[in-house]
């Protein structure tokens, strides 16, 4: 019985210290980096809303889409949505993505900056390092300054994930007449618990200073 | 008893291995540590005196505080890798560039934002209060460093030395700016300018001053484009 308890404890500790928070293989990350967001005119998407010649469509990025776009599932901590904006006017349209918000139930939430998204996805192993530092009386920390170790650490940098999320995030952008803009916004996962969620997206035509807000339900 | 000891031993070795295992977080910290050790570079540079621009607007323009609208901090979650706080540094550069360009009669810095209720009366009051005819409102859309490995880390056959993969370092900068005439409430000009500066780091990591130099060079291209667009486009003011 004692052996089993010790074995379980050892396994749990090992899992805790080496768990790399839903890691994906780097080659998968590189593949995902090269897959663009599928081009669709916003008017082709179910539930699209048209206002002043701007069409906005929003859809929840399901697990399949998350895997395809980012080579990992994000929905444990985040609520990823794909936004498409088509400009059907003859004026340039400014999409004020950073000022967007999500109405979920009685709460209004702002999108996460993407560094907070991948910060939760990268390898941390902080617990392991802390334990290790104690066990080795700080020797492991000293070794961290060694040049070879530094280069090895750098080799582990998950740059494709960062670049992929950066490329696919919806940014403040101009949509030329007739063109469509697509990108992801990442909200807190709590927003997905509500039955009805609505995205508020501020837009501005670049022939005047007026901003108008389009409200789109998320399907 | 012996079994217990071996189990404890295996737990300890697992913890030890984890302690020495590399991680993204640690790799990030060591890049950051280089900036702390060598000193943070500055974003500010001397504006280029060429090309010369003709005065486009014989009016006083006020520069509003630059709004940070980025989707990510400069490098991962680190944002204090420069001497200046980033939006403030951009405000300084915008001021220096517009002053030296001579596109406007006078350039002033304004600390208070435009009134949220932008009707003509409110804009007129703002104009009187700050003594400006126009304002430039700028949004910082991108100011980010990205890296891309060109190959894999290798180990020397005889020496066993670890050699880093060559890395492409990219500085992405994008700024959206709009010029508003206060008396009429007219949007005179608006555009988004963006540039990507690139350099190769053979040892994987660029030194802080190399990052600084690449950043300043990219910034000067961005603001060069901005001045060019301001000079070539936008509505023309006619005196009645």
Structure description:
- The complex is a heterodimer of chains A (219) and B (240).
- Chain A has 219 residues and is an alpha+beta fold.
- Chain A contains 8 helices and 10 strands.
- Chain A has one domain (2-217).
- The relative contact order of chain A is 0.23.
- Residues 15-23 and 124-148 of chain A have low confidence and may be disordered.
- Chain B has a single domain (3-238), classed as ABC-type transport auxiliary lipoprotein component (Rossmann fold, 3-Layer(aba) Sandwich), CATH 3.40.50.10610.
- Chain B has 5 helices and 8 strands; from the N terminus they run ααββαβαβββββα.
- Chain B is elongated and about 90 Å long.
- Classes of the chains: A alpha+beta (219), B alpha/beta (240).
- Chains A and B meet through helix 1, helix 4, helix 5, helix 7 and helix 8 of A and helix 1, helix 2, strand 4, strand 6 and strand 7 of B.
Outline:
The complex is a heterodimer of chains A (219) and B (240). Chain A is an alpha+beta fold and 219 residues long.
Strand content of chain A: 25-35%
- Structural class call of chain B reads alpha/beta
CATH level-3 fold name of chain B: Rossmann fold
Average pLDDT confidence of chain B is 84
CA-CA gap between termini of chain A: 51 Å
Total DSSP helices of chain B: 5
Radius of gyration of chain A: 22 Å
Q: Which sheet architecture does the biggest sheet of chain B show?
A: 6 strands, mixed
| Helix content bin of chain B | 25-40%
- N-to-C order of helices and strands of chain A: HHEEHEEEEHHHHHEEEE
- The separation of the N and C termini of chain B measures 100 Å
Overall structural class of chain A, as computed from helix and strand content, comes to alpha+beta
Biggest interface, chains and residue tallies: A-B, 65 and 61 residues
Number of domains of chain A: 1
List low-confidence stretches of chain B: 16-22
């Amino acid at each position: 019985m004692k052996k089993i308890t010790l074995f379980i404890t050892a396994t749990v500790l090992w899992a805790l210290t080496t768990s790399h928070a839903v890691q994906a293989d780097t080659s998968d990350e590189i593949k995902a980096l090269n897959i663009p967001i599928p081009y669709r005119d916003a008017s082709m998407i179910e539930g699209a809303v048209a206002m002043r010649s701007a069409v906005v469509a929003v859809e929840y990025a399901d697990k399949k889409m998350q895997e395809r776009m980012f080579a990992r599932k994000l929905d444990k901590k985040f609520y990823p949505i794909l936004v498409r904006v088509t400009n059907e006017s003859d004026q340039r349209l400014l999409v004020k993505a950073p000022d967007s918000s999500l109405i979920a139930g009685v709460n209004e939430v702002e999108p996460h900056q993407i560094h907070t998204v991948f910060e939760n996805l990268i390898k941390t192993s902080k617990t392991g390092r802390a334990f290790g530092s104690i066990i080795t009386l700080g020797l492991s920390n000293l070794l961290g300054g060694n040049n070879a170790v530094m280069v090895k650490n750098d080799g582990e940098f998950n740059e494709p994930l960062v670049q992929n999320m950066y490329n696919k995030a919806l940014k403040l952008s101009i949509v030329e007449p007739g063109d469509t803009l697509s990108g992801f916004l990442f909200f807190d996962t709590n927003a997905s618990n509500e039955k009805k969620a609505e995205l508020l997206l501020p837009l501005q035509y670049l022939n005047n200073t007026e901003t108008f807000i389009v409200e789109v339900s998320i399907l | 008893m012996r079994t217990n000891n071996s189990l404890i031993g295996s737990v300890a070795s697992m913890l030890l291995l984890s302690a020495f295992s590399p991680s993204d977080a640690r790799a990030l910290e060591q890049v950051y540590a280089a900036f702390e050790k060598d000193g943070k570079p500055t974003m500010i540079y001397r504006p280029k005196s060429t090309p010369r621009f003709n005065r486009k607007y014989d009016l006083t323009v006020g520069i509003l505080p630059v709004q940070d609208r980025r989707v990510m901090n400069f490098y991962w979650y680190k944002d204090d890798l420069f001497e200046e706080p980033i939006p403030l540094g951009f405000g300084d550069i915008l001021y220096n560039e517009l002053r030296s360009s001579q596109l406007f009669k006078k350039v002033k810095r304004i600390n208070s934002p435009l009134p949220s209720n932008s009707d003509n009366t409110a804009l007129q009051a703002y104009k009187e209060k700050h003594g400006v005819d126009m304002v430039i409102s700028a949004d910082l859309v991108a100011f980010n460093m990205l890296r891309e490995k060109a190959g894999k880390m290798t180990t020397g056959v005889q020496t066993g030395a670890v050699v880093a993969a060559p890395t492409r370092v990219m500085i992405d900068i994008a700024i959206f700016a709009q010029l508003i005439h206060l008396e009429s409430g007219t949007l005179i000009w608006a555009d988004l300018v963006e540039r990507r500066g690139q350099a190769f780091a053979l040892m994987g990591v660029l030194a802080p001053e190399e990052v600084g130099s690449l950043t300043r060079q990219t910034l000067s291209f961005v603001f060069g484009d901005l001045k060019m667009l301001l000079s070539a486009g936008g509505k023309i003011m006619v005196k009645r």
